[in-house]
């Protein structure tokens, strides 16, 4: 026989379907008509944080400015229309996967300057995005921007040179610049040379005919010895400017200079001494008896010409002793197998032998 359920043991009733949500139980806004605006705290919270804790912020694109002193200039290949259109298409499809980095804009409170991520910012604009993921990093400087782009090989040689020039103008030493951007002193020296190129070489470099910094420095060395010949060589627009072609040019100029010295007229008068080469030679020889007295026996312990054989990257090479090194701790070398000349840190070189040439 069934009995009525005991009220004390009856299950609890469920929440009524029309119960007001918690937000609706809050006091109303005093009749000012603000109840429809919802929670205003988000307006005071600044950039919107990502759902996962510690993730990037979603920054309002309208509050972000590009750094006017960023090392990449407008003619950087990464800023071309084609490159940015490709990036925008990727962002429309997948979004920005790598957050940008920004810092507070000291000249415009509430706004941000881009540390790195200008391409992603521009691509997002083209993709009609209103926000972009990013981190705020106020411990950032121009050297950090250069390092970040250098490691991705996104800076041109001219942009690197311009940055080095600005640092040198501030009184920063080349060694300090090299340390700041994690590059060798020779790297800084080579790029600093791009700031003051002879006009014909500067024209070839600025026009994009030559982009290899080593080739540019090779041309400068040749120009100092034979400016007219190097200028004429560069004026040929069909002439390819490569390491190989510049090497052949320098060998040709060295050979030409040697033959010019051999073919020099002995009757040519020296403007300083007023003597011909023949007379100068006779004067150096002097009388037979005097010359014999002045002649000295060769010292068997002295080398007439020293050849320093070394090993670099497991390849035989020799030091180029008559060429000024780009920086302390560096030297110019020449591979024995293919004749390539290059600069290297002496710490990477193994001494093999000292011979007489």
Fold and architecture overview:
This protein is α+β, with helices and mostly antiparallel strands and 357 residues long. The protein is 36% helix and 15% strand. It has helices at 81-94, 118-126, 142-151, 157-169, 174-180, 185-192, 199-206, 213-225, 227-235, 243-262, 277-285, 288-294, and strands spanning 48-49, 57-60, 64-65, 100-104, 112-116, 131-136, 306-312, 315-319, 330-335, 341-345, 350-356. The protein has a 6-stranded mixed beta sheet with strand order 1-2-6-4-5-3, sandwiched between helices. It has a 5-stranded antiparallel beta sheet with strand order 10-9-8-7-11, with no helix packed on it. It is elongated.
Helix content: 25-40%
Structural class: alpha+beta
Number of strands: 11
Order of strands, main sheet, comes to 1-2-6-4-5-3
Helix and strand element order: EEEHEEHEHHHHHHHHHHEEEEE
In the predicted model, the low-confidence regions spanning at least 5 consecutive residues are 1-45
N/C terminus separation? 125 Å
Please state the CA-atom Rg, rounded to the nearest Å: 36 Å
Give the percentage of residues in beta strands: 15-25%
The mean pLDDT is 75
């Amino acid at each position: 026989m069934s009995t009525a359920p005991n009220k004390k043991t009856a299950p609890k009733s469920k929440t009524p379907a029309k119960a007001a949500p918690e937000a609706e139980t809050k006091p109303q806004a005093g009749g000012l008509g603000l109840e429809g605006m919802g929670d205003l705290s988000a307006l005071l919270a600044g950039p919107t944080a990502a759902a996962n804790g510690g993730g990037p912020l979603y920054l309002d694109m309208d509050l972000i400015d590009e750094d006017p002193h960023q090392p990449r200039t407008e003619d950087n290949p990464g800023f071309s229309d084609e490159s940015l259109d490709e990036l925008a298409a990727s962002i429309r499809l997948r979004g920005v996967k790598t957050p940008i980095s920004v810092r507070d804009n000291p000249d415009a409170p509430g706004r941000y300057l881009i540390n790195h991520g200008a391409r992603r910012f521009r691509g997002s604009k083209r993709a009609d995005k209103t926000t972009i993921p990013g981190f705020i990093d106020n411990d950032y400087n121009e050297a950090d921007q250069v390092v970040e782009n250098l490691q991705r090989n996104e800076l041109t040689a001219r942009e690197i040179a311009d940055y080095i020039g600005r640092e040198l103008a501030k009184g920063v030493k080349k060694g300090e610049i090299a340390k700041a951007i994690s590059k060798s002193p020779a790297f800084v020296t080579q790029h600093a040379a791009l700031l003051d190129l002879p006009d014909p070489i500067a024209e070839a470099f600025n026009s994009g005919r030559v982009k290899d910094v080593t080739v540019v420095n090779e041309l400068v060395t040749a120009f100092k010895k034979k400016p007219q010949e190097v200028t004429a060589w560069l004026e040929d627009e069909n002439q390819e400017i490569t390491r190989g072609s510049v090497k052949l040019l320098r060998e040709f100029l060295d050979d030409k200079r040697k033959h010019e010295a051999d073919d020099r007229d002995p009757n040519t008068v020296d403007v300083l001494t007023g003597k011909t080469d023949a007379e100068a030679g006779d004067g150096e020889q002097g009388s037979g008896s005097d010359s014999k007295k002045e002649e000295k026996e060769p010292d068997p312990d002295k080398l007439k010409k020293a050849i320093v054989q070394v090993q670099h990257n497991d390849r035989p090479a020799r030091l180029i002793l008559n060429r000024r090194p780009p920086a302390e701790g560096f030297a110019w070398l020449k591979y024995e197998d293919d004749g390539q000349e290059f600069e290297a840190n002496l710490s990477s070189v193994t001494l093999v032998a000292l011979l007489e040439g």
